[in-house]
Every structure is written in structure tokens, then in C-alpha cells.
Amino acid sequence: MEQASAAAVINARGIVTGWSEGARTLTGYPAEEAVGRSVGALLAEPPSTTALAALAGTLVLRHRDGSRLPLTVRACAVLGADGAPDGYVLTAEPLAAPAPAPTLSLTEQAFQQASMSLSVFDTEQRYLRLNDVACRVMGVPEDVLIGRFFPESVEDAEHSRSFLTNLRMVAETGRPVRYNSWAGAPALNREHAWSIEMWPLKDDSGEPTAVALAAFDSTEQYLAQQRLALLNEAAAGIGTTLDVVRTAEELVEILVPRYADFASVDLLPWVLGADEPPPAQDGEIVLRRVAHGSVAEGTPGAAVRLGQTDVYEPSSPPVRALREGRAVRSQAGEPDFVRWVADRNARSPEGSSHREGVHSMIAVPLRARGTTLGVAVGVRMAHPDDYAADDAVLAEELASRAAVCIDNARRFARERSTALALQNSLLPRDLPGQAAVEVAHRYLPSGSLAGIGGDWFDVIPLSGSRVALVVGDVVGHGIPSSATMGRLCTAVRTLADVDLPPDELLTHLDDLVTHLATDDTGDEVAELGATCLYSVYDPVSRRLTMAAAGHPPAAVVLPDGTASLVPMTAGPPLGVGGLPFEAVELELPEGATVALYTDGLIEGRDRDVDHATAELCRALTASAESLDALCDSVLKAVMPEEPSDDVALLLVRTRALGADRVATWDIEPDPAHVAGARQAATEQLTAWGLDEESFVTELVVSELVTNAIRYGEPPIQLRLIRDRALICEVSDGSSTSPHLRRAHVYDEGGRGLLLVAQLTQRWGSRQTGSGKTIWAEQPLPPD
After folding, report:
1. Which residues lie below 8 Å from residue 676, measured CB to CB, with a gap of 6+?
2. Could you tell me if 361 and 380 are in contact, meaning their C-beta atoms sit under 8 angstroms apart?
3. How far from 326 is each of 367, 389, 541, 766, CA to CA, in Å?
4. Strand-pair partners of 287
5. How far apart are CA 686 and CA 362, in angstroms?
């Protein structure tokens, strides 16, 4: 071998087994001194990892005289019988001068300077090459990793095991793999999202000789997708009910744990009431905690309990967010943040351990339709990242959606409260005293999102100890329905005063609804539709007369326990117009129970009305201590679990006025019989022990009988009824009704009815089938 060239043979253990003459000349070592020694003993410094991997490069030997000898060395593997490397043949040349830095090819530059992480592994998953980005991710230079087994360079974690599995799969199958991973790296302080692609490097025969991979850091795209997913979830998960507190709880459930380790929602106190928003406040602001949650069960780190109010300082992030109308971020070390954490720890020392590690918070105002409702606060402890600008944009979007839902719930609660107050003011509170029936009633407003309906009931005392029983239902919900219900309720009372029969009264009421609908716009016509059941009970004749306008029939329970629906023809609902109503008349024994109700009691989604009415009849026959208790048991047995409409129930138990409390006389149409009528009335009062009422009664009987004889037509009848009041009635065959008029000084008549009106509690007239009846009532002393 020439002096400029030398050769040596080493085995797989790194022991020199062959030494050429050129090697002796170059290094000064004879063959007997070199053979059998370790290659490392001949080196002045260890070789670079790159040179070992490439089997070519610069080595520095120690000359036999002790000097350093740089050489250019190339190695060629010697294969054994099994085809594996059994040794290497090295050739070397001296370096006359320092070798110039190698010039990288364009391909090498592209690999080394790529913006993504590029790596090459052999088929045994050992590092062969890494570019600059991959070295920064791993946190070490390339020569530290070359030749190392991948698991030795990373932590033992699920993502590392998955990475190794995919490397082996590509090396074994020769097929590329692409997947996404959420993982950390030795040089990164937090986990990142990676889009990883691996592909095989093959030799001329198509066998994989190495595996190359590219890993793209897609963290920003991943976080953007997560934020979008959170917004989509918020759109479906916030505002599922029209309840202010539940809506705030839904916002907290969205925020924890993906966006915050702790979150709270505080509202201005007026939001939870029925008041209008007050003027903007300066200085401290009082907020009420309505919802909070954290990654720790039970939210032990909350300094304010649910339902409690808290006073926030002007410099606190929540107040700044309310004043500035935007999200306010605060990080550990900032004065406002330090004061806020110190204040929380002072208020709730027992929760301070759960606030350890707090490093970032964000406060975002809840604003809807230009009105500030409150503030939402998010806090991060275990989450490694501080709140950034993108997080503030997300928080404002979530808060905006939640605020609209909270405002909708607030408006619904206010309208519901207003409608309920309006309806309660229109419904009878204390039913007027009367002796015809015993009464019990219930009104249950609907809890559905549709709002309060227009159900109503009433008990109206009529002349002759009779009583009108009415129940109705206005189509629709909310304040318009309640207002319409008030109109109809007033109209029914007015028409009842006229003492019209039930079918005629419903005809007039139908005309009124049609007139109201005509006056309104087209959208309001449907709201003015209504149903009604009107009935009149006479305790003297024990007759119940009723007519219905599109309303469910009443149920009757006789004293023997038999229950049934009243067979009647329900006319059209009010507002249809042009169709007749039919009345039905029943004679009831004393002690019968009549149930009048609205359709909310028996109707519901997937509910059979016939089955519900059968349940109603059975429930009415159940034993109960009182009529009031029977109301409760009927509602419990019949009403659906989640009624979608208001429920009104009116139970009446009939009473009867016996012959001992009613006196009747037929009067001949002759003025000479007026004195006899007065005498008969006086004697009857004496029999009833009402002598003190005789004077007024004589005057009333004299006036009414005289008018009937003078202006009316036969037959003429006088009737006295002793009830809670003393009632005097005079009937005749004429349909002409009397009226009060002012008598002049020299008029001989015209003062009789005025005298009756002055001496009695009230008086009036009603039409009958054969004429009219004039009546007057006198108060009686309590028994």
C-alpha cells in the first residue's frame, strides 16, 4: 500500500484483525502492535455520530510518536455467513490541511431548513437524521440522537407508544401512515396538536430500508376547531329552558372543564326580579351569584355561595368588564389579579387550598339588547395556558349567546308574572256569599313555555237566591289572553245582571267576541277565540240550566254516588258567530255535586280524552272530608303530570230552599186585593220571626203589586223567599220592564220604585218565559 493510503480490518467487536504496510507507514505502528488492539485505543478523540452513521468521515488517530493524526476514513462492511455485518475494512488517507466545510446540496438544505419537523429512522426505530425543527422539538442536537432507539429519547406515555407502533408498522408493511396526535415533546412546555405522516424509504428491490416522517404543528388549527365545537355545543346546550338560573348553570357547564377550571355567573339583582334596569352605578357593584362550577366536586373553591350577593371593588376584573363592555383578562403577578385572589382568600379561607396555582382569569360581561345583565368569570389553575386574545373572543361570543338566553328567560318570567298577576286580579278571590250552593275551586297556571293561559271561573249571585256558575278558556297564552279573559269575565257578569237564560247569554257573548275580533288586526283574531260553559242553579226549584260554547260538559255526582257527564250539545266556540246555542235543564237533588272545569284538566299530549273524563267521574265519587279536599284529590287523580295548559276546576254542591222558606200567593188583578197581599206578607213574616222587617216589606209589596195590577197583565204572583236576605218577588204576564224616573213636584205617580230602591238593599227585574219578575232584597240580621 502507498504511504498516502492505508488499510485495516476490524471485527464486529471493534478489534483490529488486519493491518497493512501502508497503515504501519502512516501511523508508525507495526502490525504486531496494532493487531489485537481495540480501535478506540488508537484514536486521539472519539468519532462523530454522523461519521459512524455514514461509515465515512474524519478520524483523529494517535501516532506512535504521540502526535495527533487526522485522517479521511471510509468503511466497507464485511458480511458473515448469515448476511449480517461481521466486520469492516477501513481505508484512510492523511489530511494535508483542514478539510473545508462541506457544501450542502439543495435537497439537503430543503431537508434541514424545512418549517416542519422531519426525521429519518432505520427499520429498528433508531434515529438516522433530524432536521433543525425536529432538534428544537426534542431539545438536543442531532448528534446526541443519531443511533439511539426512539423510546430511549422520550417519556413512556400513550402518545409515545402510539408513535413507535406506527414506525414499526411502516417499516414492516412498507405502507405510509397518516394520523393526528395531541402530545407533548421534551422541549415543549405543553402539549401540542400534531399532524404526522410517515412513509417508507425503499431500496432498488422495493424493500424498506428506513422510515421518514414529517410532523406539522397544527395546534392553532386544533384549538380553533375546539373553539368552534364549543360554540356549536353552546348553541345547543344554552337556553334549553326559559329559566334564568338554569340558563346560567348551562353556561357554566359549557365552560368547565374545557375552557376554565372554575367558572361563575353573577347577575345584577334586578335581573331576578320584575323591575326595570336601574341607571348605571358608579363605584362598587353588587352582584348575586346564580351559578358556579369547577373541576373539583362540590366547587369548594367558591368564595361566594349560590344565592348570595357580593360587593365587587371598582378595580376588580368583573367590574371593569361590566364598565368597559368587553372581556377583561388578568394574569398572575398583575396588581388587580393579586388583589382579587387575596380578597377571595380573605372571604373564604377554607377554600384557599383549592385556589393554589391560579394563574389566569377572564371576566366577560353578559349583555343583551344593549342591557348589561351580569358577568361571567373563568379561572385557570390546572390548565397550563393563560387566557389569550383568542380566548377573549370566544368568551365574548359564549357570553353573548348566554346573555340573550338569560334575557329571554327574564322577559318570559316577567311576562308570566304580569299575566299571572293580571289573571289573579280578575279571578274571584272570595266568592260572594249565597245559599244556593257550596263552592270549592282551584286554579293552576301552566308551567309550559307557552305562558299563562286565559282560563277563568266565576260564581255570580242572581235574583231569587239563584246562582250563576261559569267557567271559560281563552285561546292562546300570555298577557293578551289574560286581557281577553278579563273582557269576557266582565261581559259575563254584565249579562248575568240582565238575568238572561244561558243560551241567550252565550249568543250575546259570541257577538261580543266577534265584534272584538273584527276591531283587531288579523294576527289577533285567533287570540280572541274562547270557550265557555254558563249555568244557572235555582235552589227553590232545584233546577240546573246550562249551555256550552265549545266547552267540555260538566260532570254531576248524585248523592247515591253515581257520576256521569251532563248530556248536552256543545255549541261552537265563541267568536265563530252565526250558530245557535242549546240549553239543557236538569233537576238535581239536594247534595248533588257538579264539576265544571277547563280542558287543561283532561287534555294533554298522547292522552285519551274519554279515558280522562272517565277518571274524572271516578275521582268525583271518592270520599273526601270536604268539598275543598275533593278538589285536591280530583286534581291529583286526573290532571296530567306535566300539564301543557292552565287548569281551572269549580266544584259546587247543591242546596235546596224548602217550602218552609218560600211563600207564594196568586193575586187577582184588582186593586182591592193589594191590602190582602200586604196582610199575607205580614203574617208570613211573623211566622218566620221577622216582624221587624214588616214595615218595609209592606211598602215594597204594596208598590210592586200595585204596579203589576196597574201596568202589567195577569197572571200576577207574589213570592217571599227567606234566604240570607229577604226577597220579595212580583211576577206578571207583561214583558215591559219598569225603570226609575224623576217625579216632578206636582206629579201624582212615579215615586213608588224610587221608594223601593231607597228602602231595600237592591232591586231589579228579569224576563221569564211568561212575562217578567220584579224583585227586591232586604238585608236580614245574622242568625
Report:
1. none
2. yes
3. 10, 12, 75, 71
4. 310
5. 88
Task: HSE, CB side, 13 Å, CA atoms: give it for residue 747.
Answer: 8
Instruction: Tally the C-alpha atoms within 13 A of residue 722's C-alpha that lie toward its C-beta.
Output: 19
* Cβ–Cβ < 8 Å for 198, 170: yes
Grid cell in block for residue 719:
213570592
Q: Which value, in Å, is the radius of gyration of the alpha carbons in the chain?
A: 50
Chain centroid offset of residue 22 CA? 91
Tell me the pLDDT tens digit for each residue of 423-475: 666 666 666 667 788 999 988 877 555 456 678 889 999 988 899 999 998 88
Residues 6 or more apart whose Cβ sits within 8 Å of residue 188: 137
CB-facing half-sphere around the CA of 506: CA atoms within 13 A: 33
Residue 298: is it exposed, middle or buried by C-beta count within 10 angstroms (0-12/13-18/19+)?
exposed
Question: Rounded to the nearest 5 degrees, what angle is found at the Cα of 459, between the Cα atoms of 457 and 465?
Answer: 160
| Sole residue written with cell 252565550 | 506
Q: How far is CA 544 from CA 594, 652, 654, in A?
A: 10, 12, 10
Output the nine-digit C-alpha cell for 451.
Answer: 305562558
Report the C-alpha gap between 64 and 639 in whole angstroms: 110
Q: Which residues pair with 68 in a beta bridge?
A: 62
Asked whether the beta carbons of 423 and 429 are under 8 A apart, the reply is no
Residue recorded with cell 287543561? 600
The string of DSSP letters for 328-396 reads EEEETTSHHHHHHHHHHHHH-GGGGGGGTT--EEEEEEEEETTEEEEEEEEEESSS-SPP-HHHHHHHH
SS3 580: coil
3-class DSSP state of 576: coil
Q: What is the pLDDT of residues 557-583, one digit of tens each?
A: 999 989 999 999 888 998 887 788 999
Task: Say how far residue 562 (Cα) sits from the centre of its chain.
Answer: 46
**Higher-confidence residue: 70 or 529?**
70
- The whole-angstrom separation of Cα 744 and Cα 747 is 5
Mean pLDDT of the chain: 85
What single-letter amino acid sits at 61? L
CA 623 from centroid of its chain's CA atoms: 41
Instruction: Provide the grid cell at 660.
Output: 218552609
Distance in angstroms (rounded) separating the CA atoms of residues 715 and 668: 8
Amino acid at 494: T
User: Residue 578: what residue type?
Assistant: G
Q: Is 262 exposed, middle or buried (0-12, 13-18, 19+ CB in 10 A)?
A: buried
Separation between Cα atoms, residue 178 and residue 422, nearest integer Å: 67
Task: Extract the C-alpha cell encoding 752.
Answer: 213608588
The predicted structure's pLDDT at residue 273: 79
Answer yes or no: are the C-beta atoms of 145 and 130 closer than 8 Å: yes
Which of 421, 447, 454 has the alpha carbon at shortest distance from 526?
Answer: 454
Q: Cβ distance 648 to 598 under 8 Å?
A: yes
Residues 588 and 593: their CA atoms lie apart, in Å, by 9
State how far the Cα of 770 lies from the Cα of 516, in Å rounded to an integer: 34
CA distance 721 to 209: 118
| Distance in angstroms (rounded) separating the CA atoms of residues 689 and 677 | 18
Bridge partners, residue 726, by sequence = 722, 778
Query: Which residue reads 188583578 in cell numbers?
Result: 669
Q: What is the DSSP string of 617-686?
A: HHHHTS--SSHHHHHHHHHHHHS-SS-SS-EEEEEEEE----GGGEEEEEE-SSGGGHHHHHHHHHHHHH
Percent above pLDDT 90 for the chain: 37
438 close to 652: Cβ distance less than 8 angstroms: yes
- pTM (whole model) above 0.70: no
Q: Band the pLDDT of 102: cuts 50, 70, 90.
A: low
Closest listed residue to residue 399, CA positions, set 363, 431, 423, 425: 363
